[in-house]
Amino acid sequence: MQDMTLPADLSQWIDGYTWHRITLGLSQSQTYLLTGASSNLYIKIQSLTAVESLLSEKERLVWLQGKLPVPEVFYYGQDEANEYLLMTEIEGVNASDKSYSMMLPQLMQQLAYGLRAVHEIPVEGCPFDHRLDTKLEEAQRRIACGFVDEDDFDQQRHGLKAEDLAHDLLHKKPQTEDLVFTHGDYCLPNIILKDGKVHGFIDWGRAGVADRYQDLALAIRSIGYNFGSEHVQTFLNAYGLKELDETKVQYYQLMDEFF
Q1: Residues 213, 178: contact at Cβ < 8 Å?
Q2: Among 14, 101, 105, 190, which is 20 to 30 Å from 94 by CA?
Q3: H or E element: which one contains 165?
Q4: Choosing from 149, 185, 211, 215, which is the catalytic residue?
Q5: Which residues form the Aminoglycoside phosphotransferase domain (predicted)?
Q6: What does DSSP assign to residue 241?
Q7: How far is CA 123 from CA 140, 214, 222, in A?
Q8: Active site residue 133
Q9: 129: DSSP letter
Q10: Which residues, 6+ apart, have CB-to-CB distance to 190 below 8 Å?
């Protein structure tokens, strides 16, 4: 990355590191692992014109310090074109890695343990609102601005338009919300394990107060995609969910098409 001009105050932080591009995930940001010093760092670089701002993740990471094992922010800044977020590494291997295929019951239990820990963060005083009315307003904005990636829709919605899905999003809105603090994108690549146990969580840009099904729905989809839907029930049992609300699962998976 020596050909990229970085803000001078950021360059002082990362002098001497070796850059490794990370391609896992669908983020708009460019993510790099920085190695070569006593401890590794991660940096995200993203255009100021991107749909979501790295500032959102920075604010949430700062708020979460001492509450959950999350990266520590070393630097956040902007220049005329980009914003930059420099963080510590959560050591371990993300939960989507195929090395976990030999320990799937334990993995499902750890995913449930991790999600319970997230949902137990008190919502009182949380400044990040992702209740349905807020999410619906943001979804409508993204449709109007042409920000919804229709090519990335789940298989059962291939070929549909964002406007088509928006009708269902409005008319199938759940009448109640079981509000907790949510990760917002509780997918397997965002959960880091070390020595077989959850060691931390990454990618917090969508975290906030929302229905617990915001996380449950995406976890269910991610487990099915990575290891097979037959393992979902083990996860739900370990989480402690007595009865699954399939309607809410489908709704929050639909909502995710807009984000």
Answers
A1: yes
A2: 14
A3: helix 162-171
A4: 185
A5: 21-244
A6: -
A7: 26, 15, 25
A8: no
A9: B
A10: 94, 183, 201, 202, 203
